[in-house]
Design brief:
Blueprint: E1 2-6, H1 10-20, E2 27-32, H2 35-45, E3 49-53, H3 61-71, E4 76-81, H4 86-93, E5 99-102, H5 107-118, E6 123-124, H6 126-138, H7 144-156, H8 160-170, H9 175-182, H10 186-200, H11 205-215
Parallel strand pairs: 1-2, 1-3, 3-4, 4-5, 5-6
Helix pairs in contact: 2-3, 4-6, 6-7, 6-11, 7-11, 8-10, 8-11, 9-10
């Protein structure tokens, strides 16, 4: 799995590289110090995943993510954020960013997030999902109760199977993982995911995951844990 890292702080890049190096299946193929360089290096190296800091000189992470998703959609984007960057998280949702991680989170989350996005899944750190919902509730987008009610109303239009798939999207699972959990063919899961996105009126899996969290839909534990 080929990964690009972009952050204007060399120490942060070194830390991210060191964490990813703990997984023998991940290879860091390039590092960038700003968003503009990140886009150029993605074009040159075609990584499976680009891990981008939000705040970078010249071109920030949001703008870089939008350009990567527009011109190189095969590369998934994971955004590194801090607790003070809620507005950036919301903007990133609209440009196709599939992963959101807190810089102060557990190292294992970084590896899990990169792997999930490479597999075509969305990965929302639980802390990020909670911040998104709380931020939407406090910035004129409606009270939290109102947003939860609206999310539940949108989810009510889904079939039982689609709601089940949505719950697993909220848990950050890939199509293959969902297929194994639900004992379905992966192509069937892909069709359900496309239908869920269309019915909810969202553009990507990360946005669908936020709706799942707002509606309080949580994936059931694996069978062996029940």
């Amino acid at each position: 799995m080929r990964v690009l890292i972009a952050d204007d702080e060399p120490m942060i890049r070194a830390g991210v590289r060191a964490v990813l190096a703990t997984d023998p299946g991940i290879e860091v193929v390039a590092e960038a110090a700003d968003g503009h360089e990140a886009v150029e290096l993605v074009r040159a190296h075609r990584p499976h995943v680009a891990v981008l800091d939000v705040r970078m000189p010249r071109t920030n992470g949001i703008e870089a993510a939008a350009e990567i998703r527009r011109t190189l959609p095969a590369t998934g984007v994971v955004m590194l954020t801090t607790f003070g960057e809620d507005d950036y998280i919301l903007r990133a949702l609209g440009c196709g960013t599939a992963g959101f991680l807190i810089k102060s989170g557990e190292p294992e989350e970084l590896v899990a997030g990169v792997r999930a996005v490479a597999d075509g899944a969305a990965y929302l750190s639980p802390k990020v999902a909670a911040r998104v919902v709380a931020h939407l509730a406090s910035t004129g987008a409606g009270a939290l109760a109102g947003r939860r009610a609206a999310a539940r109303e949108r989810v009510a239009g889904l079939t039982p199977r689609e709601r089940e798939v949505l719950s697993h999207l909220g848990g950050g699972l890939s199509n293959g993982q969902i297929a194994r959990r639900l004992h379905l063919v992966e192509g069937t899961v892909k069709a359900h995911v496309s239908s869920v996105l269309a019915r909810l009126g969202v553009d990507n899996r990360a946005a669908a995951a936020v709706v799942a969290h707002e509606a309080g839909i949580l994936p059931p534990p694996p069978a062996e844990q029940r």
